[in-house]
Amino acid sequence: MNSLPADIVLRVDRLRTHFELGSRVAKSVDDVSFDVKRGETVAVVGESGSGKSVTSLSIMRLLSPPGRIVGGQILYRAGDGRVLDVAAVSQKEMRRIRGREIAMIFQEPMTSLNPLYTVGDQIVEMIRLHEPLPKQEARKRARRMLELVEIPAAERRLDEYPHQMSGGMRQRAMIALALSCNPKLLIADEPTTALDVTIQAQILDLLRRLQAEIGMSILFITHNLGVVADIAHEVVVMYAGRVVEQASSQRLFERQKHPYARGLLACIPDASRDRTPSGERLRLNPIPGNVPSVMALPKGCSFAPRCPLRIPRCEEDPPLLVAEPHHLSRCWRHDEL
């Protein structure tokens, strides 16, 4: 019998998702664990190739072959009070949950919204798939959803196709579609990546407001720690398919206990310190090298080849260690940071 503490909506427990390509195996998600609490936002952060999106697709059971979940649990507290292992339920049960209780905003709305159907038709279809509403009632709710995400002239926009909307408007329409059945958990996969900074700030403000109004939990996938500071309660930093640091947002920004998280923060441009005392412009401080392929990981710590603090012991694979209370780090030298 699965069980969860009362304040937990989702628990990812030692999740492993592999892509099997002949005799080779890509361990895209390798022993990943975290909780999402009711009404809170957990941000999963890392560069491209770190396993963030595969984690979210595993939770939604949207993996395409040859990808499959090979271990661990994804425990979800359903609206009827049952605790389900999403990784093990039937496809029929998953179709009931997906969209109705766990919804997802994808990274690029132009490839996620169907270009052959109006925005209104797509929202109405989602509503009627999960609720026995007449088409006119579903359309009224679709209009209310567009109004909720602050799309002007909502009645007219219902009859527009995705290509007739701006990028920011399409992203709002995607949010309206995701929220149309009042989900308990919203997964947002890089929802602001393709938007300019002004629209990005508006989308983040919108998500915060909707979360306060609806009381939903959010799993926010991003590579941008600057965005995380604005929205997250808890931060999970991933690298090469594994969690390398985990802490509250405030604690992580005050004191990083893994060199990778420290490097990600150093990459954020800061107008207050972009020049030396003499007026010379400072260079950005990128992390050298690239995320390794999960099919050819280095021996020991996977971050070691890029790490300025590496020592001989880094040839041993570090476990996820308790660096401080409620602060985990996968680094042998966390006590020195």
How are the elements arranged and paired?
Elements: E1 8-21, E2 24-37, E3 41-45, H1 52-60, E4 67-77, E5 83-85, H2 91-97, E6 102-105, H3 109-112, H4 119-130, H5 135-148, H6 154-157, H7 167-179, E7 185-189, H8 197-214, E8 217-222, H9 225-231, E9 234-239, E10 242-248, H10 249-254, H11 259-266, E11 321-324, E12 327-329
Parallel strand pairs: 3-8, 3-9, 6-7, 7-8
Antiparallel strand pairs: 1-2, 1-4, 4-5, 9-10, 10-12, 11-12
Describe the structure concisely for a colleague.
With 337 residues, the chain is of the alpha/beta class. It is built from eleven helices and twelve strands. α4 (119-130) crosses α5 (135-148) and α5 packs across α7.
Commentary on this structure:
The chain has 337 residues and is of the alpha/beta class. It has a domain at 1-92 and 222-270 and 296-337: 3-Layer(aba) Sandwich (Rossmann fold), CATH 3.40.50.300. 30% of the residues lie in helices and 24% in strands. It is built from 11 helices and 12 strands. Strands 6-7-8-3-9-10-12-11 form an 8-stranded mixed β-sheet, sandwiched between helices. A hairpin with a 2-residue loop joins β9 (234-239) and β10. α4 (119-130) packs across α5 (135-148) and α5 crosses α7. It is globular and about 65 Å long. The mean pLDDT is 91.
